[in-house]
Amino acid sequence: MKKTLLSLLALACTTVSATAATFSVAKYGAKGDGVTLNTKAIQGAIDAAAKNGGTVTFPAGTYLTGAIFVKSGVTLQIDKGVTIQGSQKLEDYPMRPTRVAGIEMTWPAALINVYQEHNAAITGEGTVDGDGKVWWDGYWALRKEDDPKGLRWAADYDAKRPRLIVIYDSHDVKLGGGLLLKRPGFWTVQVVYSHDVLVDGVIVRANEGGHGPSTDGVDIDSSRKVTVAHADIENNDDAICLKAGRDADGLRVNRPTEDIIIRDSLIRVGAAGVTFGSETSGGFRNIEIYNLHTLKGVPSGILFKSARTRGGFGENIRIHDLVMEDTPTVLRMTMNWNPNYSYTKIPDGLTNYPDYYKVLTTPVPEEKGIAYFHDVHIWNIKATGAKMVFDVAGNPKKPVERFEIDHLDVQAATAGHISAARDWNLHDLKLQIADGSSVALDDTQNIKGLTEGSKKSDANAQTPHKYED
Fold first, then answer.
1. Which helix (H) or strand (E) holds 4?
2. Omega before 265 cis (within 30°)?
3. Is the pTM of this model over 0.85?
4. In-domain check, residue 466
5. What are the backbone angles phi and psi of residue 12, rounded to the nearest 5°?
6. Quick one: how far is CA 403 from the chain centroid?
7. Domain with 156 in it
8. pLDDT digits (tens, 9 = 90+) for 2-19
9. Residue 257 domain-assigned?
10. Which residue positions does the secretion signal occupy (predicted)?
11. Are 165 and 175 in contact (CB under 8 A)?
């Protein structure tokens, strides 16, 4: 199956490299000794390949480098036996305008960048290693300083950590072919403001040698016509995540993530099998997700998360044919996610702070801050060893509406709860609930398909859910 996948990817990349010349980084002075800094040599090979279109290759070895930029018409071929290893010096990652964690700001470039380019590829069975522990340790040290000051929300922006691979404002880009992506300083793969992107065949191992904070696997951020397939992910945050901007800045940009396919992937460790948000401001539409497999290290199979200041929407979302093994929660939804991070306020007495604090603390009117998820279809879900089926908490001021959920085959310890929901249609459910509990409903209307024996009002529920203020 892997051989077939690689063959398909090779065929798919022929537009980039069918008749292109080959440029070995060794001819430009690169040394795969794991010690020599090769940024200029690798970039020299890429720039030469870009003149007429070509493939950049590496003899076997470990190539220490800072940020490199893949240009239009270039294939970066990282074969088995080759490791691209990130420098641990921040000065080796030049600052670039980008979007980070939902806001536009200047940030260190990624280790490998496709920045405002087209018709490019990064492929092979080699390794891209961010050597990220130095960045993780710096982040945790900053958290110790920021958290007591009431700046938990700022820490992710204050800690300048290079991402591993970023595709920014680009199109017709391919990434994959069996690449092993290790130890990113921050997110592993971010596709932002881009379209017609294929991520097919990546292996993410983000936590080797430590606890990598916010080491998302693949983030699709205000982009369209993106496919993610055949991913194998272990990380310490969202595994495959759809994002669309944060709060006032995300609402200003107002770019949705749309026309997305996520399929045929294994999530071993991560926050969820698939995540929407919490950066929801630009909205999501026309999303199809299928054939995902989640394991014990994944708290939720399907996760929707937003906050009262995010705004945005989710519509025409189809999620089906998922298998969850020992994944604690099948479907989780929270519209008040992580308040210490989601809600921002400059502490009293703090007068000297960066400009992005002003962006993050720009008020959002209440009516614009509520995310609206509707018209979602979830079906053919097989889950064993779950703790809870439903952990759904919508916002009473704009409930989640018109969800159709069918053909669930779930073994769970307890049924869970649904709150702030309207016009849900549940049918063909096979729920084996160990404690005999029923689904607790709180502030819901027209929830069809739960018989009297499979639901409770909040007055009878043992653990009724309340909206978090």
1. helix 2-12
2. no
3. yes
4. no
5. -65, -30
6. 23
7. 2-457
8. 444 444 444 444 444 445
9. yes
10. 1-20
11. yes
d(CA 234, CA 215): 9
In a domain, 463, yes or no: no
Least Cα distance to 202 among 132, 127, 133, 274 occurs for: 127
Contacts with 236 (C-beta within 8 Å, 6 or more apart), sequence order: 206, 207, 211, 212, 213, 214, 215, 269, 270
> Which CATH number characterizes residue 63's domain?
2.160.20.10
145 vs 288, which has greater pLDDT?
Answer: 288
User: Do 296 and 323 touch, CB atoms closer than 8 A?
Assistant: no
Q: What type of residue is 215? A: T
Rg (CA), the chain: 23
Q: Are 215 and 235 in contact (CB under 8 A)?
A: yes
| Phi, psi angle pair for 423, to nearest 5° | 55, 55
Taking CA 271 as the corner, what is the angle to CA 265 and CA 275, rounded to the nearest 5 degrees?
65
Residue 464 lies in a domain: no
What value, to the nearest 5°, has the Cα angle with vertex 345 and ends 340 and 346? Answer: 125
Contacts of 281 (CB under 8 A, 6+ apart): 102, 244, 245, 246, 247, 249, 250, 251, 253, 254, 310, 311, 312
Tell me, what's the pLDDT at 208? 86
Helices (H), 53-179: 133-146, 155-158
pLDDT given at position 19? 54
Answer for the pair 68, 42: CB distance below 8 angstroms, yes or no: yes
328: left (phi over 0), alpha (psi -120 to 50) or beta: alpha
Burial class (CB in 10 A: 0-12, 13-18, 19+), 345: exposed
State whether the Cα torsion 371-241-327-290 is positive or negative: positive
Q: What confidence score (pLDDT) does residue 54 get?
A: 96
The mean pLDDT of the chain is 92
User: Quick check: helix, strand or coil at residue 89?
Assistant: coil
